[in-house]
Write a structure and sequence with these properties.
The chain is built from no helices and eight strands. It is globular. With 137 residues, the protein is mainly beta. Helices cover 0% and strands 46% of the residues. A six-stranded antiparallel β-barrel has the order 1-2-4-8-6-5.
Length: 137
């Protein structure tokens, strides 16, 4: 199985980048990559948590993408489910853990299996009226 055929989703990768201007360093959330092919799998569909102040969701899914993609722990990921197939669904905002890299074994019988897996944390206050395809970083 070639994982390139399995990537039905896309991800936008955002990272806090320090910038220095006039000896003053500020941290800015910067979009590094857009529409990187990926796939969410082993979805941890937890039920919505209802509280008196607000409802919230907390899920821990996994994301798989090519081993060459630069994802670091703490990166903010905006995931578009089905975008690789031309679908348009509400975007998912999640945060990356340390990537687990799986490289191509020497003399692999089925080439194209090199990939990385990243555990995700999705923790959001529930909001209504989300537009399809939009998520604010």
């Amino acid at each position: 199985m070639n994982f390139q055929d399995w990537y039905t989703d896309t991800v936008d990768i955002w990272r806090v980048v320090p910038t220095t201007t006039n000896s003053l360093t500020t941290n800015t959330l910067t979009e590094l990559y857009t529409a990187v092919p990926c796939r969410i799998y082993q979805s941890d569909n937890q039920p919505i948590n209802m509280e008196q102040t607000a409802a919230h969701v907390k899920q821990a899914d996994r994301l798989m993408c090519d081993a060459s993609v630069d994802i670091q722990s703490g990166d903010q990921l905006i995931i578009h489910r089905g975008a690789g197939l031309g679908k348009s669904t509400p975007a998912i905002r999640a945060f990356a853990s340390d990537p687990n890299l799986y490289f191509e074994p020497f003399g692999a019988v089925i080439p194209g299996l090199a990939h990385q897996e990243i555990r995700l944390l999705q923790q959001e206050r529930v909001k209504g009226g989300t537009s399809v395809g939009n998520a604010d970083p």
